[in-house]
Amino acid sequence: MSxxxxxxxALAEPIESGPARYGYAMRVASGNPRPPGVIAxxxxxxxxxxxxxxxxxxxxxxxxxxxxEPGFISIxxxxxxxxxxxxxxxxxxxxxxxxxxGHHAEAMRELFAGDFVASVWTSVWxxxxxxxxxxxxxxxxxxxxxxxxxxACTKCDATLPERPAFW
Length: 167
Known about the structure:
This protein is α+β, with helices and mostly antiparallel strands. The chain is built from three helices and nine strands; from the N terminus they run ββββαββααβββ. The chain has two domains: about 5-125, Alpha-Beta Plaits (2-Layer Sandwich), CATH 3.30.70; about 135-160. The protein has helices at about 50-70, 95-100, 105-115; strands at about 15, 20, 25-30, 40-45, 70-80, 85-90, 120-125, 135, 145. The longest helix is centred in the middle third of the chain and has 20 residues, at about 50-70. The protein starts with 14 loop residues before the first strand and ends in a 22-residue tail after the last strand.
C-alpha cells in the first residue's frame, strides 16, 4: 500500500470507554532498516470535519515527500475524533528538516496565515537509551538479539526471520 492508497475510515459514532477514545491509525514504512536518531511527535486538532479533511490532504502529500527522503524511517499517523497525531522516525534531524522543507512548509504557511485548525503541538525527541531488537527463532524458540542483523540463530544455527525495522 502506498500513501496514494489512503483508505478513508469513518466511525458512525465515536467509540468511547471511560477515558479511552478510539479512532484509526496507519503506518507507512520506508524500508530503511537503520535505528532512529530522532523521533518527531505531533498532534493537531481540527475544529470541524472540514479541518480534519484538510489535515488529511496535507498529510497525504507530506508522507509522499517523506518517502523520498533517504533518512526517513517510518510514520505512524491517525485520528481520534478531530485530533490527528503522527510519530515519525528519522535517521537524524537533518533528514527530517530536508523532508519538512517540501509540502509540509506549505501546510505550515496555511496554518499560520489562515483560519485553520483549533490547536497543534510538535516536538522532536532523541533517545536516552536504545534497547536491543529481539527476534524469536522459529526452529528452537530462542529469543535472539539481532541488533547486528545476523541471520543465524546462535543456539541452533537455523536461519532467523528477517529483522523488522526499528520503527
